[in-house]
Design a protein that fits this description.
Elements (H helix, E strand, L loop, with lengths): L1 E5 L5 E8 L5 E8 L7 E3 L1 H7 L2 E9 L5 E13 L2 E9 L5 E2 L7 E5 L6 E6 L2
Parallel strand pairs: 3-8, 4-7
Antiparallel strand pairs: 1-2, 1-10, 2-3, 2-6, 5-6, 6-7, 9-10
Length: 123
């Protein structure tokens, strides 16, 4: 089970650990974004800091409907106590956890400031 909290901006936030190729790790806060169909976004500076493995670019459609190309990286995420290898897009924004990361999980959010966020595996 992964637990988090609804922040003052009414965003469901969890803390996850990401790991780069050389074994460097970093704990980050990430917003759960049900409108994002990918796995994860990280900041470009975090991708550089952890030495993430560049995989290419991906096309992303932003909330305003515009499209951008973002660099994509391979990253290990400690997810529910287990390492999970996924692709992360680098964007100049707060890290996001997308719907592909939540595949085969239940998400429960009590929508109020400080409300609990709970992610449970269905596998």
């Amino acid at each position: 089970m992964i637990e988090g909290v609804v922040n003052a901006a009414y965003e469901p936030v969890i803390t996850i650990v990401v790991q780069g190729q050389a074994g460097r790790t970093r704990e980050i806060e990430a917003v759960i974004d049900t409108g994002f169909t990918g796995f994860l976004t990280v900041t470009p500076s975090l991708a550089t800091e952890l030495g993430l493995d560049f995989r290419g670019t991906s096309r992303a459609t932003l909330a305003d409907g515009s499209e951008v190309m973002l660099p994509s990286y391979g990253v290990a995420v400690l997810w529910d106590g287990q390492p999970r290898f996924v692709e992360a897009d680098a964007a100049n924004a707060t890290p996001r956890v997308g719907m592909r990361m939540l595949d085969r999980h239940n998400l429960n959010v009590e929508v109020k400031r400080g409300g609990p966020v709970v992610i449970e595996s269905r596998a």
